[in-house]
Amino acid sequence: MSKPTQKTTTPQGGNQMKPSFVSPLLEKIARQMGVTIHIEPRYRYVGQIARPDGMKRYFRSTNFDLNTLGASEIARDKAYAYYFMKLMGYPIPTGEAFFTNRWCSIIHSRRNQEMAYRYARRLGFPVIIKPNGKSQGWGVCKAYNKKEFTQAIRALSERENIFLVQKVAPGLDYRIVVLDGEIISAYQRLPLSIIGDGRKTILELLRLKQRQFQQADRDTVIQLDDFRIANQLKRAGLSFNSVLLPNSREELLPNANLSTGGDALDVTETLHPDWQNLAIRLTRDMGLRYCGVDVMTEETLAESPNSYVILEVNAAPGLDHYASSGADQRHIVEKMYRKILEAMLR
After folding, report:
1. How many CB atoms lie within 10 A of CB 136?
2. Facing residues of 291 across strands?
3. Cys-Cys crosslink for 255: which of 20, 140, 189, 328, Cβ 3.0 to 4.6 Å?
4. ω into residue 273 within 30 of 0, thus cis?
5. pLDDT at residue 332 above 70?
6. pLDDT by residue (tens digit) across 152-174?
7. Within this chain, do residues 162 and 184 fall inside the same structural domain, yes or no?
């Protein structure tokens, strides 16, 4: 059994972690619908749903028996997903995939870290560096020079063999969630940031934000030793001991994932029909029924798409952090998981 990415205790005796957000929610909805559901009791991370005809359906956290295996595997591999999206005419970030030096020595490839750096120089710094197969914003870096580039690759190499080097795409970061040709939710994703009050230090503000996450039952852990935060502060001429001016906002990470401390601004009700059609079409073209479509655009989603790139498609979008951002969002997520359960019963 592989180690869950959410916080839970593993059978191998790993760290004490939090059970999946999905299991108790599906359990609650199943009871309301009169559906038989079995949650594995020790870790509460996986479950079985019994259809009326005797067929069984399974889930593992946010991975449901909806998407086919092949389509899900392609979505998990960003480089392959980019290839097919580009083939079908969807705009994607300018970038290429490379291998860590260790992996190059195993597969006998020349696409090593040195080649990646030369490519980054041709693109022009800053560049985005991200793992090819990870999700939830893990390892995403914005490197402004060779030192930061090397630092990012060194960190990635501990857990990943393949990484992407991309040109920075300007704009706002959005996620649109699709299920069976229907838009379930859409929201803008904002990076981890703090708002100054003229009194507290940046470190105090981060600790306060962490307490707010805990009070909201959000399991995000702000990694104070994350080199990306240190680099961001250094570029801004700040440190953990700095005090920000009242109402001044400072972004601390290069990615806008909610799992790394970002915030969500719901835009479902104002989503333009052309964006709806785009997300539904892309989900279908990638062979998926359930998908989180991540886009970067300099416009808002209330306007018709003009200039944008598809950051990635996610075949198992996690919405626990989104759900914890407010009562309305919680209601949206509960409705969505009800639709997912209904879809698995068909």
Report:
1. 18
2. 178
3. 140
4. no
5. yes
6. 999 998 889 999 999 999 999 99
7. no
The model's pLDDT over 305-330, given as tens digits with 9 standing for 90+, comes to: 999 999 999 999 877 767 766 777 78
Looking at the fold, whether 156 and 178 belong to one and the same domain comes out as no
Distance CA 242, CA 206 (A): 12
Same domain for 185 and 299, yes or no, is yes
**pLDDT score at 254:** 82
Q: Please report which confidence band the pLDDT of residue 202 belongs to, taking 50, 70 and 90 as the band edges.
A: very high
Tokens in use for 150? 């090397």
CA distance 61 to 36: 18
CA distance 229 to 215: 23
Residues 269 and 227 in one domain: no
Same domain membership, residue 83 and residue 180? yes
Residue 150: give the domain boundaries.
94-168
Beta bridge partners of 6: none
Q: Taking the alpha carbons of 309, 314, 315, 321 in that order, is the dihedral positive or negative?
A: negative
* H or E element that contains 263: strand 263-266
Beta strand residue intervals within 44-135, DSSP E: 46-50, 56-60, 63-64, 95-99, 127-131
Statement to judge: residues 315 and 288 lie in one domain: yes
All residues at 6 or more sequence positions from 193 whose CB lies less than 8 Å from its CB, including other chains: 249, 250, 251, 252, 263
What is the value of pTM for the model shown? 0.87
C-alpha span between 276 and 288 (Å, rounded): 15
Q: How many domains does one find in the chain? A: 3
CB atoms within 10 A of CB 124: 9
Closest by CA position to 120, among listed 140, 91, 146: 146
Give residue 83's identity as a one-letter amino acid code: Y
Tracing tokens 């104070």 back to the chain, one arrives at 224
Q: Do residue 123 and residue 186 come from a single domain?
A: no
For the record, the structure tokens of 111 come out as: 């696409």
